[in-house]
Structure formats: structure tokens, C-alpha cells
Specification:
Blueprint: E1 12-15, E2 19-26, E3 30-38, H1 42-55, E4 66-72, E5 75-81, H2 89-92, H3 102-121, E6 126-128, E7 137-139, E8 145-147, E9 154-156, E10 163-164, H4 176-181, E11 183-184, H5 186-202, H6 206-209, H7 215-222, H8 227-238, H9 244-260
Antiparallel strand pairs: 1-2, 2-3, 3-5, 4-5, 6-9, 7-8, 10-11
Helix pairs in contact: 3-5, 3-9, 5-8, 8-9
This protein binds adenosine-5'-diphosphate and magnesium ion (MG) (2 copies).
Adenosine-5'-diphosphate binds next to β1, β3 and β5.
Length: 267
């Protein structure tokens, strides 16, 4: 049972598109995170049901667990495992900027890769997250990553490599073929993951990198490149202050991490 006195300003962990996430206590002992949504929005109901259906059956150490859910009046509640270190973006350009060492960064990259590989390869249909970004990667007390926020996730129909659908996601992280033509496949997540890798390594926001051009120009310009190549090209640009040895090392990490998302699943 949830104690309702937990939902005060002082317990807010984060705010999203349609509601807030609170730190709360379950059965007076276990600390959990509760995502509270207001049902007036048609889209909220859809996102909520989507999130519940998709993640209630998923158990993987790099995917945020849904512990339960309830509906009370005009509010919907998702009970999620609590992630003490919050979202990854705070460690890249937010209040905790610069505090992750290189080992932690590699671990985070590989953890996300494992989580994505599971979503894409473990079930008879592929699950596409559609909103992979630093703000949706949460960290445990020992800085292990878990992919969160399945509100936009979709199944790919069995035996289909892609579907054509209306764009949803976050600009700056979106694969060009999806932003421009609505082509949705698991590559959309891989592309966003590539952007996240760049952010983790450079400590810079994806949008900052492209701030001198409009996003659509940027996407068009890069549409012809393979994702791997894109990551390599931009990476060189961003790491001029690293020495040759460090650069080569990190290039390998990127290569392996992107390969991991296509390889057999590891738990
Ligand atoms: P939205 O769908 O509205 O984007 P999210 O599920 O991404 O909501 O959560 C919004 C923010 O709340 C996250 O970026 C994070 O900072 C915080 N948050 C969400 N879930 C948790 C959790 N389980 N533990 C700690 N903080 C969380
Ligand atoms: Mg989110
Ligand atoms: Mg969401």
C-alpha cells in the first residue's frame, strides 16, 4: 500500500511530459519511485497502458523494473524500482557534471547495449523503445544503467523489419529516416544510442553539437552516413583534447558497444 503523504514537492525525483515521479515508501519499508499521471489526457492513458503492458513482463538488469501499478480517480500510478543516482544527463552536463570516471562510462555504455539487445532480440517480436536519451537512462547506487520510460515503446509486427509510422521521440536523438520518412525499426534505437555514446564520451549535449544548424538540416546532411560512421566522424571532432591512445581506445569501445546491440542477448 502506498502512503499518500509521500507525494509532496520535497519528494519529487523528476518531472516529465504528463506528470511527476516521486520517491515513496511501499509497505512502510521499501523505497520505490512512483510515476503519477493525470488521466485527462487521452495520450496519457495510452502511454500508461503501453508502459504497463510492455514492461510488466520484462526482467533484465539493464531495464527499469515495474513493480506494480494502480488507478485512483483521475490519477494513474506506476510503481518503479528506485534509482538513487537519478538520470545520466545530470552527470554529463547537469549538477554532477564531470564526476563519472572512464571505467564507469564504459560500464554504462555496455549496460545500455545489453538492455537494448534484450529488447530487440529476446522476444518473438522486436520492442523498439523510441525515446533512448541520457534523460531516460537511470543509474543505480553503483552507477549501473537501466533504461527507463517505456511510454513511447512499440512492438514491431512479427516478420517485419520496419513499419511506417508517425514520428515520436526527441529531436537530436532521432534517426534521419525516422524523422524524415517515418521509417521505424530497431535501428532507430541504435542511432539514439550512438548519440548517447557521444554524449557520455564528450560530456556534451547532442543539441549543443548541432546548435549552429537547424536540426533538420543536420539530419539531412548526415542521412547518407552509416550510424557507425557517423559516430566515428563526430567522435574525432569532439575528442581533440584526448591523446591518440585514448582516442583509439574509445573508438574501439564505440564499435563494440554498437555491435553488442545486434548480438545474442546477455543477461
Ligand atoms: P516521462 O515519461 O514523463 O519522461 P520518466 O519516466 O522519464 O517520465 O521520468 C522523468 C524523470 O524522473 C527521469 O528523467 C528521472 O530524473 C526521474 N525518475 C524517473 N523514474 C525514476 C526512478 N525509478 N528513480 C529515480 N528517478 C526517477
Ligand atoms: Mg522521460
Ligand atoms: Mg515517457
Amino acid at each position: 500500500q502506498l502512503a499518500t503523504n509521500n507525494f509532496g514537492e520535497e519528494n519529487i525525483l523528476g518531472k516529465g511530459g504528463f506528470g511527476e515521479v516521486f520517491k515513496a515508501t511501499l509497505d512502510d519499508k521499501n523505497i520505490v519511485a512512483v510515476k503519477k499521471l493525470h488521466v485527462q489526457h487521452g495520450r496519457v492513458k495510452e502511454e500508461f497502458e503501453n508502459e504497463v503492458k510492455l514492461i510488466s513482463d520484462i526482467h533484465h538488469r539493464n531495464l527499469l523494473r515495474l513493480l506494480g501499478w494502480s488507478r485512483e480517480g483521475s490519477h494513474l500510478f506506476l510503481v518503479l524500482e528506485y534509482m538513487p543516482n537519478g538520470s545520466l544527463d545530470q552527470f554529463l552536463w547537469g549538477s554532477k557534471r564531470g564526476t563519472l570516471d572512464w571505467n564507469q562510462r564504459y560500464e554504462i555504455i555496455f549496460g545500455i547495449a545489453r538492455g537494448l539487445a534484450y529488447l530487440h532480440n529476446e522476444f518473438h517480436v522486436k520492442i523498439i523503445h523510441r525515446d533512448i536519451k541520457s534523460n531516460n537512462i537511470l543509474l543505480t547506487d553503483d552507477f549501473k544503467p537501466k533504461i527507463a520510460d517505456f511510454g513511447l515503446a512499440r512492438f514491431l509486427p512479427e516478420d517485419e523489419t520496419h513499419v511506417i509510422t508517425k514520428f515520436a521521440g526527441t529531436l537530436g536523438y532521432t534517426a534521419p529516416e525516422y524523422a524524415l520518412q517515418g521509417v521505424l525499426s530497431d535501428k532507430v534505437d541504435t542511432y539514439s544510442f550512438g548519440v548517447v555514446i557521444l554524449e557520455i564520451i564528450s560530456g556534451r549535449r547532442s543539441t549543443e553539437v548541432t546548435s549552429d544548424k537547424s536540426t533538420s538540416d543536420y539530419l539531412l546532411e548526415h542521412a547518407w552516413k552509416s550510424y557507425e560512421k557517423k559516430v566515428h566522424m563526430e567522435f574525432i571532432d569532439m575528442t581533440l583534447d584526448l591523446n591518440q591512445h585514448q582516442q583509439e581506445h574509445v573508438m574501439k569501445i564505440i564499435e563494440i558497444a554498437l555491435l553488442c546491440t545486434q548480438s545474442p542477448v546477455t543477461k
